[in-house]
Amino acid sequence: MPINRRQFLRRGALSSAGLYLSACAPISTLSQTGKYDYTLTLEAAPFELIPGTQTPGLGFNGQYPSPVLRAKQGQPITITVINKLDQPTTIHWHGIRIDIAMDGVPFLSQKPIMPGETFVYRFTPPDAGTFWYHPHVNSVEQLGKGLVGLLIVEEADSDQFSADQFAADIPLMIKNWHLNDDGSFRPLSIPRYAARMGTPGNYETINGQHKPIIEVPENSWVRLRFANVDNTLVYKIRLKDYDARLLSIDANPLQPAPEFKQHAIGAGMRFDLAVRTPAAGETVTVQNGKGKLFFDFCTLKSIASPASQDHQQPLPTPPLNPLSEPDMANAETLKFTFEWEGAITPADDQGKAKHKFWTINRRAWEGMSKDSIPAPLANLEFSKTYVFDLKNNTPHHHPIHIHGIMFKVLKSTKKNIEPFFTDTVLMEKNERVKIAFVADNPGRWMYHCHVIEHMKTGLMGYIEIS
Ligand code: C2O
Ligand code: CU
Ligand code: CU
């Protein structure tokens, strides 16, 4: 199948830069006003994931892959969300340092959007980079069946950097689907797996395709935006015998951008690479590691293109995001321990078993409703610096995420760390990690593991900044 027919150079109101889009990353259209103004309709829709079959998915605008929303740092964006599902939902903008009212967590920050209802999200992203969006209601099913999409915030214009220093900007949205051979869904969650690493899917996709071949303009710097939107898995990405630079982690640039060797991303995590493409006809193979072995994952194929750079340019350097540096001299340290509890509570009155497998500081998530919001895991004072001493007392990975802020990873008991800012940190088994941040965004912010089944079976809570 010629998968890249729809690749095209797009110059227009949406972005100041000429951006080369990967075939399978449709863009939603802008309103007539030319502002960053989108509509997302959540609806049941058939997807063709396994060629020749239909999967009864849930899609944004009935599509998978979902529209890639593009916004600009420091400029308002409006997204009108229409719920045509048969269940409530909300949309969360993962990684955006947002106003709490727009964070998209039911009861904590807004009322659920009921079937048939519309909710308008408006915010101004302070940071540039690769972000994503997803519901925060019934997440095993809503995310698992396709309601996951990328939100790319382009850097504000500056003299040093502009997005068109890359000849192409390519989102790579990774998800492993739970499918039978005929395209129907297998169970998205199996309790004995939820109590371990999570229930893995079995049909690997990048932008909705299995092992895609993605065309890139030859002899040029291109930006690859890897995003793990899977419910469960860790991806360990490398390029096969090819150099690249690690531009950013969870939207935050590294300066200077280090040589890229390999990088592991848990559910919810992203990273950007700068790759200088080879001559037309040559390919670069992206691989994913499982255990000690690496498997081909997708292929970049260089083609002659009007977007190609006509001479060798220096490595483009996106500017740092405007994050507050933690004030370590006056920081307060709080300890958090992630543990396995392993109690299967008896069926509730609807006959459904409620599983609680995981705890944070010995507390499992108690659930939330409009009349009952549990106490926060911690009360933080606005503008003060906090160190979180995170301890994973389990034999499983946990990508730990906090809403509303970016935090700095300082050190780990398992690896040497050059401190970096992120919104989600992947904790290995029995690893202990120290993070720090300035509590500069008031609100009640979710704090959870991004393995969706872990979050649903206890590994979730929130912090309150006031
Ligand atoms: Cu992707 Cu609660 O987050
Ligand atoms: Cu989030
Ligand atoms: Cu977890």
* Rounded Rg: 21 Å
Q: Output mean pLDDT.
A: 91
- CATH topology descriptor of the largest domain: Immunoglobulin-like
Q: CATH H level of the largest domain: which superfamily? A: Cupredoxins -  blue copper proteins
How is the biggest beta sheet arranged?
6 strands, mixed
Secondary structure: helix percent: under 10%
Gross CATH architecture of the largest domain? Sandwich
Strand content: 35-45%
The helix count comes to 3
Ligand roster:
CU-O-CU linkage, copper (II) ion
Strand order of the largest sheet: 12-11-14-19-16-17
Note poorly predicted spans: 1-32
CATH class of the largest domain: Mainly Beta
Q: Name the shape in a single word.
A: globular
Q: How many structural domains can be distinguished in the coordinates?
A: 3
Overall SS class: mainly beta
Total E-strand runs: 32
Gap from first CA to last CA: 54 Å
Description:
The protein is mainly beta. The protein folds into three domains: 5-155, Immunoglobulin-like (Sandwich); 165-303, Sandwich (Immunoglobulin-like), CATH 2.60.40; 328-465, Sandwich (Immunoglobulin-like), CATH 2.60.40. 3% of the residues lie in helices and 44% in strands. It contains three helices and 32 strands. A six-stranded mixed sheet has the order 12-11-14-19-16-17, with no helix packed on it. It has a six-stranded mixed sheet with strand order 23-22-25-30-27-28. Strands 13-21-20-15-18 form a five-stranded mixed sheet, with no helix packed on it. The radius of gyration is 21 Å and the shape is globular. It starts with 8 loop residues before the first strand and ends with a strand. The relative contact order is 0.13. Bound molecules: CU-O-CU linkage and copper (II) ion (CU) (2 copies). Residues 92, 94, 401, 403 line the site of one copper (II) ion.
